[in-house]
Amino acid sequence: MNFTIGYETTSKSNKTVTISDLGNATYNGSICGDDQNGPKIEVQFGSVFSWTVNFTKEKSTYLIESISFSYDTNDSTTFPDAKKKGIFTVHEPVAFRIPLNDIFRCNSMLTAEKKDVIQHYWDVHVQAFVQNGTVSTKEFLCDKDKTSTTVVPVTPTTLPSPTTTPAQKEKPEIGSYSVNNTNGTCLLATMGLQLNMTQDKVVTVINIKPNTTDFTGSCHSQTALLRLNGSNIKYLDFVFAVKNENRFYLKEVNVSMYLVNGSVFSIANNNLSYWDAPLGSSYMCNKEQTVSVSGAFQINTFYLRVQPFNVIEGKYSTAQDCSADEDNFLVPIAVGAALAGVLILVLLIYLIGLKHHHTGYEQF
């Protein structure tokens, strides 16, 4: 999990701080519960932050009843120049029901937003009211995990294939996005984004307008998040991950947005593999690319450049270009074609010369 907190400074500007290094945690106040009190998780991250989850039980289910997060803006190191000083708490009623003796699992990104705090959770495994000290092997999945692991049949006559581009539309504007944490800029992205959605056999194409799009996110050692939102976009998440300890890639895309007809379009896929590049570098692709999130949702990118890890002094590192693999493939083809052309030319010269030789002998 991580937390992004917005606050106003004494100079009336707005700042955000993202808390992702949660290594120094204590659990004072956590209980398994008894006849009078339900189970409770209480976690303290130093003296500045605390996080509490309360559980209750009904006949055949237990509830994640509420989540609370507190932060202390008196800490000038974490909240420099904070205008309002004190301990602030956001309380999020959840009331999420889980069958008794099931373990709740959600590998997808879950987000809770209230007041000035954005909370992100992923790879969640939790079970309250454990029976006989044995954790259950039966999982109860969150809706996002159900969506991302369910394969929806695609009918070619009504839905576009993952590589099909819907009706042509003008190219989107190029936007620049960044994510900051306590150490400065930790994620950079520059790209034009065009969203292609199919719902009820109707294709909708939307260009993201950077000047009306808000962005936030978070960074930590193994994953990074860039979240975009706007007037008709509840959220568009790009989740990056590290693989083999030396490369990064786009692992997950989650989207929820309002369509013209007032309906909500939501898709999640946490099993992607795009924009692969070495750690310490950026990934760049100036040509149009398509990220196929599902049969009903694709993202076209233009003049893309991203670096979700190891950003130094707020600048991109050396880029790995998407055309590199293509160029490596074309070079041997070009060389082979050239050699074939030379061989054909030599053979033609030889045949012509041989013909002239025979002709001269017959005349003699």
UniProtKB/TrEMBL annotation:
Entry GO CC:
autophagosome membrane; late endosome membrane; lysosomal membrane; plasma membrane
Q: For this UniProt entry, which segments traverse the membrane?
A: 329-352
The family database entries (InterPro entries) matched by this protein are listed as: Lamp2-like_luminal, Lamp2-like_TM, Lysosome-assoc_membr_glycop
Q: Which PROSITE patterns match?
A: LAMP_3
Q: What is this protein called?
A: Lysosome-associated membrane glycoprotein 2
Say which domain of life the source belongs to: Eukaryota
Q: Which Gene3D superfamilies match?
A: 2.40.160.110
Q: Which Pfam families match?
A: Lamp2-like_luminal, Lamp2_2nd
**Lineage, broadest ranks:** Eukaryota, Metazoa, Chordata, Craniata, Vertebrata
Question: What are the UniProt keywords, alphabetically?
Answer: Autophagy, Cell membrane, Cytoplasmic vesicle, Disulfide bond, Endosome, Glycoprotein, Lysosome, Membrane, Signal, Transmembrane, Transmembrane helix
Q: How does it sit in the membrane?
A: Single-pass type I membrane protein
Disulfide cysteine pairs (residue numbers):
C106-C142, C285-C322
Q: Which family does it belong to?
A: Belongs to the LAMP family.
What range(s) does the Lysosome-associated membrane glycoprotein 2-like luminal domain occupy? Answer: 172-311
Instruction: Tell me where in this chain the Lysosome-associated membrane glycoprotein 2-like transmembrane domain is found.
Output: 331-361
**Where does the protein end up?**
Cell membrane; Cytoplasmic vesicle membrane; Cytoplasmic vesicle, Autophagosome; Endosome membrane
Q: Name one GO biological process term.
A: protein targeting to lysosome involved in chaperone-mediated autophagy
